[in-house]
Amino acid sequence: MADRTWDVIILGGGTMGTAAAWALSLRGASVLVLEQFGHIHTMGSHGGGTRIFRHAYAEGPEYVPLMFRADDLWCSLENQLGTSILHRVGILEMDAPGYDHAKRARASAERNGVEFEWIDAAEIRKRWSAFNPPDGWEGGYSPIAGFLDVEAGLSGLLAVARRGDVTLHADEPVVSWESTTGGVQVRTAKGAYSGGKLIVTAGPWAGDVLSDLGLPLEVVRKDNFWIDVDQPALFQPGVFPVFATASDIGEVYGFPIFRRPGIKMAEHRGGETTTPQTIDRLAKDEEAQSCVDLAAVAMNGASRRVINGVICMYTRTPDDHFIVDRHPAKPNVVLAAGFSGHGFKFTPAIGEQLANLALDQDAEPFSIFRIDRFG
Ligand SMILES: Cc1cc2nc3c(=O)[nH]c(=O)nc-3n(C[C@H](O)[C@H](O)[C@H](O)COP(=O)(O)OP(=O)(O)OC[C@H]3O[C@@H](n4cnc5c(N)ncnc54)[C@H](O)[C@@H]3O)c2cc1C
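That is the input. Now the predicted structure with flavin-adenine dinucleotide docked in place:
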């Protein structure tokens, strides 16, 4: 049986589990993180190397303060570690005629005082040689947005967490957990562990780990592709921003060249419903069609050659809002799930919320993140 009792045990040391460990460590808690794979991997929701960070957020007003908090926290982590995590290369959001994704971002930017310059297709072509949108397309440019380096972010959070009393057991899947009035018991094939609180941050596995709750979660198969470019100089961070588009082709977005050849592109919409156990993990070149089509319609110098692809999973809720709450029947269990393909930017701010929910009896979840909204 366990030889010590941890203040908090975290089930799942991926994105949000790492952030929770970091936030708990800053508050002086003892923490055991149990992760079924290595720390940082491509089997769940954080694979693919980079994530967009943008401030003109149309998904709901509640996200705006959370995003500014996350921006501050990412920056202070960078300063503390002397490393780069948030690359502020700017974002260009473009709408084809009849689409309003960028327009909704512009409305959010206006409400929240975020710099977001509205420009037409001719101006876009003039400013960036790599973009060639047809006449009629319009877009907004926000210079303070950019992308997060996933590996630098998560390994940075863990490095700071480990300065406190935080232990990570990698390659140790949790096979069962229970909550009693006195605390929580967690079992793996290697041992049994006792804690005061349990935080479940199991990503696409959350539905299985929390099967008692019957959460309305849908796991969706998503792919990221690296597309070869003929003139790499046009696609470097600094001269080429992150971009997001809405058009007949889909909601295709992409990144400058970073750490490996080619520009990473993906389609936000669609994807097959799947499970982490049965998902087809092989990315096929023909699945890159919308990325290649977008490059043909709106870019200069991007080829049709797919260099590589990585499969990843969204875990969607019916309203695409997150779940960050206490277990309704087990108050010593806190959970974060259903990040619906847009959670990474908020990571350290979600870590703080999880630490508060676990350590402070009076802490309340954000209303849009509550479980009881599902009835
Ligand atoms: C293709 C793609 C693109 C995205 N783009 C963006 C973007 O541009 N901007 C943005 O903000 N967000 C983006 N996201 C979303 C973001 O990456 C996710 O919201 C976030 O990574 C979810 O974190 P998580 O902790 O829930 O899941 P994960 O990071 O997958 O962590 C869950 C962890 O739990 C572990 N686990 C599960 N079960 C067990 C068990 N029984 N025992 C031990 N460990 C277990 C898993 O191994 C995993 O490590 C994107 C996601 C995808 C898939």
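The chain has a mean pLDDT of 97.
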